[in-house]
Amino acid sequence: MSIKTFLLPDLGEGLTEAELVRWMVAAGDEVAVDQPIAEVETAKSLVEIPCPFEGVVSTLHGEAGQMMLVDEPFISVNTGGEEAPEPAAQEAERAQSYREEERAGTQVPADEEAAEDEGSGNVLIGYGTSNAKRKSSRRRKPRGGVAASAAHAPSEAVRVINPLVRKLARDNALDINAVQGTGPDGLVLRTDVEAALAAPAQQPATGAKDAVAAPAAVAAVAPLPKAGAADSKTGLPVASSQVLSGVRKTIANAMSTSRREIPEATVWVDVDVTKLLKLRKKIKEAQGQAPSVMALISRFAVAGLQRFPELNSRIEVEADGGLRHTVFQGVNLGFAAQTDRGLVVPNVRDAHKLNANELSAEFARLASVAREGKAGVADLSGSTFTINNYGVFNVDGSAAIINYPEAAILGLGRIIEKPWVVNGKIKVRSICEMTLSFDHRVCDGGTAAGFMRYVADAMTDPKSALASL
């Protein structure tokens, strides 16, 4: 027989892991080429994984709820035919290659003269092997302490196959060598690093050198509280406790990054949309259908971004610490959509090329596929400006968090009838509160206010605004 192992494929846009939601087959089942075998949840959407082989399922390399890594064994299928190498042997060979790569450049060459004339041949991602870099590395003097001593004692690197695990530890000043791996043969998993960071011994956070000097303290892992058990801090029973994953984890990280990176400010205005609602009603009576209110307002917002392009931009940090401000000519319009899996932001590509009817249709289509969990990576990434209609939740207003790395987000509250002064007289009008949260680095308050005033005036007198678009 021949056992073929299918590795979890690249799911796009730099996604390196996915949560296994459910298997659609079991060991011993017959499978056909392109038959759906499992459903996984990425940071973007739910994805069905098809099988590339025909045969009988031999091994399922994971259980529901488990995080699966891209390019790691996902399913093994007995396809018949000639004998193939055992998956375990293949995995051991791959693990060894990773260990060799991680050790590349840490051992001193036997012939120093030859090392100066030739590259090491060991290429790490993000590092070259030129002579200049190697000479520069030897001129650096290691800092004192335990870390300096360790640099002179090359040994087999800790087993960490996923580079994101190393980055997570490095970004939090955690010595990866001090983390106790729970994977096969001591493999360090992301959950091991997250558990080490959450351990009480890590509070307050220490520097990298302290982490090296006290590996025992770092390795101490606090067990997660179980349902029904008393919480150590509050004394209250724990209803549930789980590590965030999938979309919920992505939302949490994005919101934290936005608050941490963007110095935002918020402006708001109450807008009389009575004429806008009347215009929409007339369009519906005449044509049998009409664009949604959000689509009409979005059309005004897109036009406003063409007049105030600073808000349709992003700021990125350069390698040297400088800030790069990138302004876009077109608009990919994101909109917040609530789904059973959490809040996602589909985006309408080239929204500046669409009229209100086309925008309305795209909003409906993307919202539908997002709620079904079928939105693709391209549907959920690449927006340059976002609009959030929190009025659907029956609230008047909100200072929305900017969808990082964008520069601004427009918020719409519910439309309610209020007494309003019109030409010196009090009348009942339909009023909507509109807010704009913006990155104060890309512009000052005058620009943000100018954009808001343009959109608000268009909403108040839509006929005049549409005539000029």
From TrEMBL:
UniProt-recorded name of the protein: Dihydrolipoamide acetyltransferase component of pyruvate dehydrogenase complex
Named cofactor requirement(s): (R)-lipoate
Claim: Glycosyltransferase is one of the keywords in the record: no
Biased composition (Basic residues): 132-143
Family matches, as Gene3D superfamilies: 2.40.50.100, Chloramphenicol acetyltransferase-like domain, E3-binding domain
Family to which the UniProt record says this protein belongs: Belongs to the 2-oxoacid dehydrogenase family.
Taxonomic lineage: Bacteria, Bacillati, Actinomycetota, Actinomycetes, Micrococcales
Acidic residues bias locations: 110-119
GO cellular component, as recorded: cytoplasm
Keywords: Acyltransferase, Lipoyl, Transferase
Enzyme class: transferase
GO MF term set: acetyltransferase activity; lipoic acid binding
EC number: 2.3.1.-
Compositional bias (Basic and acidic residues): 91-104
Disordered, as annotated region: 78-152
UniProt superkingdom: Bacteria
Residue ranges of every copy of the Lipoyl-binding domain listed in the record: 3-78
Peripheral subunit-binding (PSBD) domain: residues covered: 160-197
